[in-house]
Amino acid sequence: MRDARAPDPVTDPLPDAAGIDLRLAARLASLRQEHGLSLDALAATSGISRATLSRLERAETSPTASLLGRLCTVYGRPMSRLLAEIEADPAQVVRHDDQAVWVDPETGFRRRGVSPPARGYAAELVLGTLPAGAAIPYEAPPVGGLEHHLWMLEGRLDLTLDGVTHALSPGDCLRYLLAGASRFACPGPEARYLIAICRP
Description:
Elements: H1 17-34, H2 39-46, H3 50-57, H4 65-75, H5 79-84, E1 101-103, E2 110-115, E3 123-130, E4 135-138, E5 146-154, E6 157-161, E7 164-168, E8 173-178, E9 182-185, E10 191-198
Antiparallel strand pairs: 1-2, 2-3, 3-10, 4-9, 5-8, 5-10, 6-7, 6-9
Domain HTH cro/C1-type: 28-82
GO molecular function: DNA binding; DNA-binding transcription factor activity
Organism: Methylobacterium platani
């Protein structure tokens, strides 16, 4: 029998997911060129193989959150800003259907740009959904000193910052300045949280 479940307006991806992947691939290729890096040089700097980088730029594979994190560190921009660069400038009212959703093909992590970066605004708002059992490590922040305010909505999240793990439950709020390595892990059930991000 066919599943008649209605789409969840918060967690279900937008139908334009393939279009986002194509625009992201093109932006990654242009960023490398803007920084004057060959594929070999980028591979050496990012720790990502040349073959993988080539496939990413040709949209033959979707980047994982971990890979995007490494590339954002090389290019000195938060992941949210990278994703915003492939979208049109947001209007004052960001309608639900206009909020870009990106899904990590490796972990199933979903990232919705509720209030994406825009000229004249220092903050942004992101909704994250991390499946039970999934974990995403980031070796370094893309930009040092990013201010984060993470508010748990549902589930459980273990967020490790510089070796210290914070076990978060619904209603908890963790605020921090992102300076070193971090790791998002969901011991279960599925974690849903909002993050307000402010540039330094």
